[in-house]
């Protein structure tokens, strides 16, 4: 627990913060949300097309023809993982295009984050697929 003295010092320091002052600094800070937003706990991004997700889920259910509630759940997991992998790939293309003016190190950092996110959903897809195959 912070002491009263620490809280007062924190408030004094916070009042000095004015944010970025140059256009370059503002452009760089604009991408800060991605630093933590890519790892947010929410499974579905806010700007995602839920209509597209519903369509892909329907295609997976028709394709796999699940017979039990467990199979339906796994087919939907596979569909969601595939859709999110594609979503992050499209987002990566858009964001890296916008980040072209930033430093190469920043671009590599963003690319690494997107790659990790896509790999996560590829593994999630394969895990659900293997579980589906085992349960048949």
Task: Note down, in words, how this protein is organized.
By secondary structure, the chain is mainly alpha-helical. The chain has one domain (24-135). It has helices at residues 4-15, 23-30, 32-37, 50-64, 69-98, 104-135. Helix 4 packs across helix 5 and helix 5 (69-98) runs antiparallel to helix 6. It is elongated. The model is unreliable at 38-42 (pLDDT under 50).
Topology, please?
Blueprint (H helix, E strand, L loop, with lengths): L3 H12 L7 H8 L1 H6 L12 H15 L4 H30 L5 H32 L1
Helix pairs in contact: 4-5, 5-6
Principal-axis shape: elongated
**What's the helix-strand series?**
HHHHHH
Largest sheet: none
Task: Give the helix proportion (percent range).
Answer: over 70%
Low-confidence stretches: 38-42
Structural class: mainly alpha
| Gyration radius over CA | 21 Å
Distance between the termini: 53 Å
What's the count of strands?
0
Total number of domains = 1
Strand content: under 5%
Number of helices: 6
Mean pLDDT: 81
């Amino acid at each position: 627990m912070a002491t009263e003295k620490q809280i007062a010092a924190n408030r004094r320091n916070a009042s000095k913060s004015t944010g970025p002052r140059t256009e370059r600094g503002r452009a760089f800070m604009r991408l800060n949300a991605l630093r933590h937003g890519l790892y947010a706990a929410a499974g579905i991004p806010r700007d995602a097309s839920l209509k597209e997700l519903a369509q892909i889920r329907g295609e997976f259910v028709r394709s796999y023809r699940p017979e039990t509630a467990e199979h339906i759940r796994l087919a939907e997991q596979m569909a969601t993982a595939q859709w999110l992998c594609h979503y992050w790939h499209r987002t990566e293309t858009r964001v890296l295009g916008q980040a072209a003016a930033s430093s190469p190190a920043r671009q590599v950092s963003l690319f690494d984050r997107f790659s990790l996110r896509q790999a996560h959903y590829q593994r999630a897809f394969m895990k659900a697929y293997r579980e589906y195959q085992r349960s048949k």
